[in-house]
Amino acid sequence: MNFKIYGNEGSKTLISNMIRRSREPHSIIIHGDKGLGKKKLALWTAAALLCEEGGGEPCGRCKNCRLIAEGTHPDVVTAKSGEKGNYMVDDIRPIVSDAVILPTEGRMKVYIIPDLDRSVVTAVQIQNILLKLIEEPPDHTAVILTAASREVFLETILSRVISLAALPVTDAQSAEYLELYENTDPASAGEAVKAGRGNIGRCIDYLAGGLFKNGADCARALARAALGRREYDILMALSQTDSSRALFHECAVLFSEIVRDSMRIRLEGRTAVTVGCDEEAARRMSTLFSEEKTLALYDLVCSYVRASDASCNLTLAINSFAAELGEYFT
Ligand SMILES: [Zn+2]
What we know:
Layout: H1 9-20, E1 27-31, H2 38-50, H3 63-70, E2 76-78, H4 89-98, E3 109-113, H5 123-135, E4 141-147, H6 155-158, E5 162-165, H7 171-179, H8 186-196, H9 200-208, H10 211-227, H11 231-239, H12 245-268, H13 279-286, H14 291-309, H15 314-329
Parallel strand pairs: 1-4, 1-5, 2-3, 3-4
Helix pairs in contact: 1-2, 2-3, 4-5, 7-8, 8-9, 9-10, 10-11, 10-12, 10-13, 11-15, 12-13, 12-14, 14-15
The structure holds zinc ion (ZN).
The site of zinc ion has 9 residues, from helix 3.
């Protein structure tokens, strides 16, 4: 990897300035949606802390920077979670005991614990184990936690960390990033940028035909069917997700973003900044419902996002979601 981070100037400047003033941050959380580059920002921060040039940002050339880029630096440890994203206590305890030992290569040791929010069962327990390290970190350690939102963090943690938000970039920056890919034709790149907006991870997934691409296709078909008041097409759009809980979840999340965008457009007018994968559908939806009804629709969609996380019967969920949406849009 290289250390170029698109956008997010505020976060980079904050970290760089702290390092230049020899006030290295020891506990950092990075929050933001999937695909916004939280892990990349965590590695950028690790390299900035360990770079031999000491300029407050990674030079990309020194030994420490190169080892971090290769993922082989002995003093930069990324915690591994189980298959479903849950950290076990035994994944985290060794970090706390290892933190007292001095670094081998660099001047600091950096522990990165990604996606804490995916650790549904043990997130609180894990934070309690880390609390002492975060309260009284040795001079030579830094801990970086990432999560989709700040909500997963305990107050006792939040009050002791530097909090960085991974933010969307501009469409031009997404396009510039995609241009770096070989064999990307401009038309596909343009389509990916339009769907993924400022979320570079989503743009890449769209190009690769991954979960985001399939979820976006479903969510757009669903929005168009709902706006056209075609009940049968609503069911057909949702039925495409019948084989995969992950796809149903992605589709519901992306549809909820379209509804949220429609609310934004309703409140803020034409200049509203939208994030979803179908701005045109959001604009059409914004003229359809009152604020109150849009909020109720948003709540309805979110209840199916949550249902897809739980162990609901997928076919039943799809059928009742289709029926409820059909009623909404008639
Ligand atoms: Zn360097």
